[in-house]
Amino acid sequence: MLERLLIKQFAIIDQLEIDFGSPFTVLTGETGAGKSILIDAVAILLGGRSSSEMIRHGAEKAYIEGVFSFAAEHPVHQLLAEGGWAEEGEDSFTLSRELNAGGKNPCRINGCTVSLNAYRQIAAGLLDIHGQHEYQQLMQSQKQMDILDAYGAGPLAHLKNQVKEACGSWRTLEEKLASARENQQAFAAKKDFLEYQLKEIDEAKLEPGEEEELAAEIQRLSHSQKILKHLDKAYSLLFDLKESEPAYDLLAKALHQLRDLGKYDPELTGIYDRLEPASYILDEISREIHRYKDQMDLSPTRLEEAENRLYKIKALGKKYGEGTEAILKHRQKAAEELLTMEDFLTKEEEWQEEAAKAQKLYFQLAEELSRQRKEITKHLEEQIDSEFLDLAMKSAHFKVDIQKQQPGPKGFDAIEFLISTNSGEPYLPLAKIASGGELSRITLAMKRILAATDTCETLIFDEIDSGVGGATVQAVADKLLSISASQQVICVTHSPIIAAKAGQHFFLAKEERAGRTRTGIKELTGEDRVQELMRMLGGDTTSDDLKRHAAAMLKR
């Protein structure tokens, strides 16, 4: 239940604190006292939309805090533990929201700042607020289906999940088929284009790094005459000089002169040893020069072939990416895309078979879901009619109409709640005949019936007495008291009959201090509560008869 509510600097509320100590609490006060503002604050506490305009004029921020406690088996405890926001065994926790004029509005769970999505996940299902908007929702077909399914509880929930999954599988396959059919022509054109690219690249027979090798070869062939000329000159200087002795012969003579000097001084042996390998190096250079010249292709056609080859690679590079590696990478990507496309086209028949199976499974499950819903409606109709008797709607009867509609993730049922308000009158949709007072009573009936399956343990009713009076108000008050046996009920009301039924009574009033208007709150007990009931009854607050009447209401 909601144990404590703290509101600071919100709208005309300076600071307001409420400790809830009863399963049934009422909030009363004159019109404009701030009751609706308090409901707005609770909605924001639960993760509702906020605005800096809600901050009290002159303040930098507003603050809303709620302390909640739930039974150990309530699912909220597992969510808190999984998020690391509460220790195991804790039976209460705090939610708080801050509204800042600067725009940042932190959300906190037990003092830990969390994202709004995580905050809403925890807040969802803690507390329900029922006002005129929620009563209007009751007239929507989708909301009526949710109510019926909630009444079906566990077995129906499992079947609904199966229907949703089957619908998703069927639709996915149908979308694949539709895409394949719509894109047949586009696929054919793209397929031809990809095949052309693969053929063009494959015919080029590219090798990674070939472009660099060709550039080096063209550089070499373009300067072949100069290379040969300098190689011949170098060879002549080293080995075959005509006008004087070549370097190789001079080196041999130098080695001859040094060979035996080590006998006289060991230091000279080192000079000989360091010079001797030079002759081997010159021998190797001689062989390399001959080998290079023998391998050199001096045919004029080779240079042309190399230049043409490089031009072709560069032309392909303009289409598919600069360099052989980029071209080959594009080739791989095109091949993979073509393979995927061919696989997509060839699977159409397979998808048709799978889609037919998925459709069959969906309709089998949806048919069973519809059958179970029809079974459930019988019990729901009986219970609603029974609740109507308690709510001073003795001639009213409730009926659930189930018709087939387009298949969807919740099945193919269209749910419509019908009501006959008087004996012999036809059943008509709620939207056509239900008044605000009737809708509030129907909502009460639904809540009373669904209490056993509802994980939400706190219900706030905002002026549920609107549009009802006399014996009906008494019936509504009794029903609220009945609901409070299993769920916490907080009710904003103008009805003294409802107010008298509550175990706890708070009075809200506007007051002026230092030229500022603020909303104050006071828990009423004893004589103060009698006085408030007298005010709500609308009579002479000095009347002893009225006072006795109000006291008698409380006593009952």
How is this structure best described in words?
With 556 residues, this protein is α/β, with parallel strands linked by helices. Among the domains are: 1-134 and 456-524, P-loop containing nucleotide triphosphate hydrolases (Rossmann fold), CATH 3.40.50.300; 210-322, no CATH class. 57% of the residues lie in helices and 18% in strands. The chain is built from 20 helices and 15 strands. The protein has helices at 35-45, 75-83, 116-123, 132-137, 141-182, 184-204, 210-222, 224-239, 247-258, 266-275, 277-295, 300-320, 324-346, 348-390, 430-433, 436-450, 470-483, 496-501, 526-537, 544-555, and strands at 2-10, 13-19, 24-28, 61-69, 92-100, 107-109, 112-114, 127-130, 397-408, 411-420, 428-429, 458-462, 488-492, 504-513, 516-524. The strands form 3 sheets. It has a 6-stranded antiparallel beta sheet. Helix 8 runs antiparallel to helix 11, helix 12 packs across helix 13 and helix 16 (436-450) runs parallel beside helix 17. The chain is elongated. The mean pLDDT is 85.
User: Under CATH, the topology of the domain at 1-134 and 456-524 is which?
Assistant: Rossmann fold
Walk across the major sheet and give the strand order: 2-1-4-5-6-7
Q: Calculate the terminal CA-CA distance, rounded to whole Å.
A: 26 Å
Task: Provide the gyration radius in Å.
Answer: 46 Å
Can you count the helices? 20
**What is the strand content?**
15-25%
Q: What is the global morphology?
A: elongated
Going by CATH, the homologous superfamily of the domain at 1-134 and 456-524 would be P-loop containing nucleotide triphosphate hydrolases
The beta-strand count equals 15
